[in-house]
Design goal:
342 residues; alpha+beta; DUF3712; single chain; membrane; eleven-stranded mixed β-sheet; transmembrane helix; transmembrane
Amino acid sequence: MSEKVNTTYVENRYNEPAPRPGVGQKTKRHCARWWWLHLIIFCVVFLIIALCLVYVAMPHIAQHDVNKSTLTFTELDFLEPTADSVTITQKGILHSSSMYTPTLDPFTASSWLVTNGTFGANPILTVEMPKIHAMHGDNNVSVSSQVASVVDTNQLNAFTIAALNQEYITTALTGKTKLHEGALPVTTVSYNKSTTYKGLNRLAGFNVTSPNINLTAATGAPNFSGFAFIPNPSIMTFAMGNVTLSLATAQAGIIGNATVENMTLVPGNNSLPMTAIIDQLSVIGSMDKSGNVLLEITGTSAVYNGVHLAYYEAALKSNVLSLEMNIAAVLAGSAASAAASA
């Protein structure tokens, strides 16, 4: 008997529609066909992201790190002054908390006086800053014996007055420079750092030590000598030249003047030889019952290499020192000293 074929089953099996491909199969087929397009899109997106990071994000990161760094002065010397320049030595510590170690090109910085957070109308002077390679942590930054030009004499006057009279003073350095970081493109950054440090605090603690009155001095010759004791709590050194001081009392007015030659104030205690020409009768007439005289001392001039330094004279005139001196004891001591040396 021949085998009977189920023709119905065969017909149904071949007439069924083919099953639809799944998402995975479609994706594979699409990628196999359009792989080159996806590669182009990936490269374009990667390039856009990379360019944004390099040319947009990195400059912002660089500026942010520069802004976040701090500058602390450890020494400020103002030497060899002229009417329109001063030779400065400036030492400080630049602290960077950045993970990067960029290099800043040399640049011209403007120095500003900052008062209660407000910059002066103009810079005080300009300083040529050296190349700085900023490592993570503390970095020494220094300018040595550089002749800095005065930009605005009014601002320099304001700076010297503030430096002499204030317990603390704030200045700022500003400028623009190029920043290098490895193989990344060079970027321009703005440098703006304010630093607060101690001032001379009105020369608090001023005194005259080893005073001596010469009763036999010739007319017009110095008849008083001693040492001007001047504390300097700041980090600043000022070479001021020959300084003249006016001496006065409430009772007699101006009684004479004193001179400190080659006056240079360095950090710490300064003891500088001082001579004076005083009207001895006016001094004696100003004594109280205990033999004390209250002297009012005001700087009137500062001359360096024959040139009047208006900015130091403005500072000296802004600060009146009061000094009580027992003239009776000074006279007694001077007489005894003169007798001993005779």
